[in-house]
């Protein structure tokens, strides 16, 4: 962007970071820089920014909560959008049959949403307990665990078009697949998820809280904690588990620079301290090639690499 475009964008955004270090916005704790990181919570601001970007043909991306992204060590041109939301933005419409339609901002964290559901005795999202990231990112990735995915409880998805129009799509209009979601009009046009409505059930608050605690305890037992990572790095191939294939290949503990395949969970690549993105990408490629050599399966990354 030239200086005039920078001034125009700054006038549209309440909060913007120029030449932002993405290590601060990624759970990997590693990353290059982006030309502009825009933080937004208001729908009108978002619409204005998207309209401006579309008119000037400036490239943009949305990064969600930063739990499933990695920026390579270079300067990335364009605008990167980070949405903000909280439990204060949640609306709940209770119905006579015990169902509840819960409307949530895309920028709300998954942890906050699950916690809100526990406090309000609503069941249906317990399997998401302990998963990092934002609600918008979870919908975009159709995130899930323990045989379930978030798309199962989505009623509608709210999104913005690349030209700034706000739209809401019913569940039957959205294509949910394993770790992916396709909105109406995609991939021909680019969309940004701004929120969703979940159809949840009234339940026993103590039981819901107990299930969430049990799931979080399982995660802590099986997954590395207190260290930079993006969670599960590879998608599970059909009929198998990426972690099992990596472990069988003898790759636990394999390292490139300061990036390592976790000795605790083989489908976690962790930053042991001071890893650069190229360490992580290099290790990813080593794992993919060795698993392919030994099992004939080419693993697909779940992490979005820019």
TrEMBL record:
Cofactor: FAD
Record Pfam families: FAD_binding_4, MurB_C
Domain FAD-binding PCMH-type per the UniProt entry, residue ranges: 29-203
Pathway: Cell wall biogenesis; peptidoglycan biosynthesis
GO cellular component: cytosol
Predominant cellular place of this UniProt entry's protein: cytoplasm
GO molecular function terms attached to this record: FAD binding; UDP-N-acetylmuramate dehydrogenase activity
GO biological process entries: cell division; cell wall organization; peptidoglycan biosynthetic process; regulation of cell shape
Catalysed transformations (reactions): UDP-N-acetyl-alpha-D-muramate + NADP(+) = UDP-N-acetyl-3-O-(1-carboxyvinyl)-alpha-D-glucosamine + NADPH + H(+)
Top-rank lineage group of the source organism: Bacteria
Record EC number: 1.3.1.98
Keywords noted in UniProt: Cell cycle, Cell division, Cell shape, Cell wall biogenesis/degradation, Cytoplasm, FAD, Flavoprotein, NADP, Oxidoreductase, Peptidoglycan synthesis
Designated name of the protein: UDP-N-acetylenolpyruvoylglucosamine reductase
Native source organism of the sequence: Desulfobulbus propionicus (strain ATCC 33891 / DSM 2032 / VKM B-1956 / 1pr3)
Organism classification: Bacteria, Pseudomonadati, Thermodesulfobacteriota, Desulfobulbia, Desulfobulbales
């Amino acid at each position: 962007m030239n200086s005039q475009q920078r001034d125009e964008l700054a006038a549209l955004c309440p909060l913007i970071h120029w030449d932002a270090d993405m290590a601060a916005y990624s759970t990997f704790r590693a990353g290059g820089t982006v030309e502009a990181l825009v933080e937004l919570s208001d729908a009108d601001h978002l619409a204005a920014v998207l309209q401006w970007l579309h008119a000037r043909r400036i490239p943009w991306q949305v990064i969600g909560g930063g739990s499933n992204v990695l920026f390579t060590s270079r300067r990335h041109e364009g605008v990167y959008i980070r949405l903000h939301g909280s439990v204060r933005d949640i609306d709940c419409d209770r119905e006579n049959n015990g169902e509840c339609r819960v409307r949530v901002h895309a920028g709300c964290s998954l942890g906050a949403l699950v916690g809100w559901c526990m406090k309000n005795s609503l069941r249906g999202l317990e399997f998401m307990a302990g998963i990092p990231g934002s609600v918008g990112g979870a919908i975009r990735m159709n995130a899930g665990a323990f045989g379930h995915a978030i798309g199962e409880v989505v009623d509608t998805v709210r999104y913005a078009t690349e030209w700034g129009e706000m739209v809401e799509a019913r569940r039957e209009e959205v294509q949910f697949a394993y770790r992916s979601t396709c909105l109406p009009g995609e991939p021909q046009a680019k969309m940004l998820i701004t929120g969703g409505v979940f159809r949840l059930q009234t339940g026993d608050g103590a039981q819901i809280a107990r299930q969430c605690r049990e799931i979080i305890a399982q995660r802590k037992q099986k997954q590395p904690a207190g260290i930079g990572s993006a969670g599960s790095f590879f998608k599970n191939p059909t009929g198998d588990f990426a972690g099992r294939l990596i472990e069988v290949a003898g790759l636990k503990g394999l390292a490139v620079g300061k990036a390592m395949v976790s000795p605790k969970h083989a489908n976690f690549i962790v930053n042991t301290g001071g890893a650069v993105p190229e360490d992580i990408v290099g290790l990813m490629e080593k794992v993919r090639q060795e698993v392919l050599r030994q099992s004939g399966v080419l693993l697909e990354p779940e992490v979005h690499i820019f």
